[in-house]
Structures are given as structure tokens and as C-alpha cells.
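Let us work through a complete example step by step.
Step 1: write down the sequence.
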Amino acid sequence: MELSVVVPVYDESLFVVQKALSSVSRQLKSNYELIIIDDNPQRTDLKAFLQDFQSKTKSVFLVFNSVNKGLVYSLNKGLQQAKGKYIARMDADDISLPGRFEAQVAILDGGYDFTASAAIEIDENDDKIGFRKMPFEGVMETPTVFKYGNFIIHPSVMMRRDVVNKLGGYHDIPSAEDFDLWVRILFFHHSRAFLVTDPKVLYRVRANGISLANRLTMDISSNAIKRALNKASSLAEYDELIDQSFNESKKGIKISDWKPFQKYYNYGAREYEVKSRQLKKSPSIKNYFSMVGSLLLFPLTWSYVINAVLRRFHEGEG
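Step 2: predict the structure and record it as C-alpha cells.
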């Protein structure tokens, strides 16, 4: 088996799930498989839809969690079920563009451990609203490329299964399990990755998306990962520093544990994302001042913006 495409499903509408799965099934070859993990046992409509889809599509395998287990568990469950030499990631509300999998398989056949691409952003109505760039095209051989944060678009990734399995799959790093995995892969002995600036996926941005609802958690985890990778010189040191960081974070009372602060931070991050996309879609003085206004009302968002700018202009240290 050459390729396993792993897709977890949870709260997405049947309409967008159908589009996501169709974009994969149209590219399935005889030596490809599609593994779908249903993590929402309460949704009988979703289960019936997936079973019907499986009955009409070759090489589709379904995994049903008996209770909601979360993304990390579901991803690792998909890895356990996978038989492919390579693993491609997809989310249930995104769309893989034609030729994505064949192009990425060719890259990994060249001796790379994972590859990722840029993405075109779409909204709930499939309208194009932005572009998620790669900071450069080419080879990555060191995790120091992530010193300003994670720029990898998770559903655009294809990776070598044996490397991911040796690393123990995804670790339970709250809202940053993907970032942690990319760092560990590049700390792994002689690992290499290849980035592509040409988009391979349509990345759906939902107003109530999980990433925006958990922005504070994501930022805390991402900052811990950045601190660890900047201090570590090996995978063992990185793992030790990450464990220490999260063990220490459980001690004492912090402002980030305060519910009103969490709501304020996450709402501010959401407002900035909404306003910045409005500006991208319709450049105008009104939308520009609206975005600046969101930064003045929610100044904690500034660090996120600064890191985003630094990532954009940071050249890879191949």
C-alpha cells in the first residue's frame, strides 16, 4: 500500500464532509486507501452518511469511536489503522485540489519525511477569502525554521508512516499536537522535509472554528514548543523540556486559568481574524481602520500578529 489518507470527522456539516471526501475519492488509486475516523457517536446522520459513502467507494475504511475521544486520539487511531507507506492528512471540511496526492507522493519518493503546501482559504460558502503562504519553497532539515512559530498547514501534509510511528504519533499537546510533531520529525535523525508554495488544498475558515475558540490554549502550547526547540539540541532534550514545561504549567494559579480572561483573549483573536479577512477580501479604508480598531481593543493579539509577520519573512534554514 502506497498511501493512506486519514480524515477525522466531528461536527462538520454533511454538505462540507461530502465535498471533502469527494475531493479525496476522486484521487484514490488502487494502492491508496481512505481512513475516516468518526469521533461523534451522537450524530446518527453522520454515521449513516459515512456508511453510505463507504458502500459506494472502494478502499474506504471507517472507524467509529464509541465516545468522543478528541482529535489526538482519533488521529493516532487512524495511524494505527493505516497500511500505507505514506500518510496524507485531510480535515473533513477542507478540499484536496486535483493532483495533490500524486504530486506529494513524488516528493516523498525523493527521500523526504514530510511535505506541506500553501493553501487557498475559503469560507462556509466556498468563496475564496485569502491565501496561506509558505515562507519559502524548498528543503527543511532543522526545527529552527519554527523559531517564530508554526507555519505548516496541517491538512496539506503528507508524511512517512514509519517515521511518525517511531516517534509515537501525535502527542497530547493541547491545540498544538501538529506543531509538536513537525518539530519532533525534524529533530529525528537525518530527517528532511520539503515545502511547496503552490497550494494543494482549499482550507476552510469557519467563524466558529475550533482553532479560534481555543486560541489562548494554542498560543500557550505553541510558546512552550518554541521555548523548548530553541533550547534543545536533540529530540531527547526537546521531549524533556516539553514535559517539564507542561508539568510546571499545572502548578499554581495563572491569569490564563481565569474564564473571563480566556473569553476575552479568544474573542479578540477571532475579531482580528474576521477583520483581517474582511480587509483581504475588500481592501478599503473602512476595513483597514476596523482591523486596527480590533488590535487596539484587544492588544494581546499583537504578539500573534508580530509572529505571523516574522514567519512570513523568515527564510528557511535548510
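Step 3: interpret the result. The beta strands are 3-9, 32-38, 60-64, 86-89, 95-96, 114-122, 128-132, 138-140, 158-160, 193-204.
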